[in-house]
Amino acid sequence: MLVAITGGTGFVGRNVISHLIDSGHTIRAWYRRERPAEISGVEWVQGSLNDPDATATLVDGCDAVVHSAVTRQGQSFMNEPDDPIGYFETNVIGSLRLIEQARKSNVQRLVCISSGTVHQQVADDLPLDERHPLWPTTMYGAGKASLETLCHAYGLSGRLNIATLRPVSIVGVDDPVANSKWFDLVQKIKRGEQVDISGGGKVIPVTDLARAAELLLRTDKDIAGQTYNCTIGFYSNHRIATIAKEICGSDSEFCGEEKTSARQLHTEKIENLGMKFSDESEIRRIVTRLLNEPNE
């Protein structure tokens, strides 16, 4: 299968490409600035969201698309953009342009990467599953919620076989490694420093997310217009620090209060498609790799 990837040079995109190549697919992927190194099985094409010509070049002739690109304004995806109209035009209208091009090009399947930030406020009396209302409080969350509704509109109407993955905080070893979630915490443990273990959240290893994307590409079950939650559960900073101490034998001391999870995010829907999420051994593998990096 020839799969087009948006955001191919990003953290998620790189891991999706790696997994799909290992699974026997070929890739056509966007890059925005400097051309990446050549990878067997990958055709790099320059382009970005909301560019009509680049969108057509990426999608035409492909069997499927994985849409992981998002353009941010600032250092973090969660930063509120200085130009919210421009942000919305690039990310939401750009996504609509991609979806419509996929429809015109007779793409067999499109998988969009959403975000758990569509649930920045939740209802206490409702389960946190795919039927829960979308209540974002940031432009990033609002953009992802808008993307999900576009997927519903195109998929449920039969115009395109399109579905959405909704990951929570994505963890793994990034490049550069200092950008990885937990890197600073783990390095402090390695140096024997006192660490504040307050904080934590629901996580999904990036390798699990890549496997989930391929699952939606190859399943023979009806997924058109559907959204699928992705998480392996809640990890407090206390738990991550404890794992790091166990691995490296550090004598670091902890301060702060351990955070606990208030709500369970349900994943039965994608598990019913055959998804098997990683256990804690994957978290330990990530922490081990972060520990093996040189001290800052």
Q: Could you explain the architecture of this structure?
A:
The protein is of the alpha/beta class and 296 residues long. The protein folds into two domains: 2-168 and 206-230, NAD(P)-binding Rossmann-like Domain (Rossmann fold, 3-Layer(aba) Sandwich), CATH 3.40.50.720; 171-203 and 232-263 and 274-291, UDP-galactose 4-epimerase, domain 1, CATH 3.90.25. The chain has helices at residues 11-22, 52-59, 84-104, 139-156, 183-190, 206-218, 237-248, 268-271, 280-291, and strands spanning 2-6, 26-31, 42-46, 64-67, 109-113, 162-167, 169-171, 195-196, 200-205, 227-230, 233-236, 254-255. The strands form three sheets. A seven-stranded parallel sheet has the order 3-2-1-4-5-6-10, sandwiched between helices. β1 (2-6), α1 and β2 form a beta-alpha-beta unit. It is globular.
Along the chain, the helix and strand elements come as EHEEHEHEHEEHEEHEEHEHH
Classified by CATH, the class of the largest domain is Alpha Beta
- The span between the termini is 42 Å
Share of helix, binned: 25-40%
Number of domains: 2
Strand order of the largest sheet: 3-2-1-4-5-6-10
Structural class: alpha/beta
Largest sheet: 7 strands, parallel
Q: So what's the overall shape?
A: globular
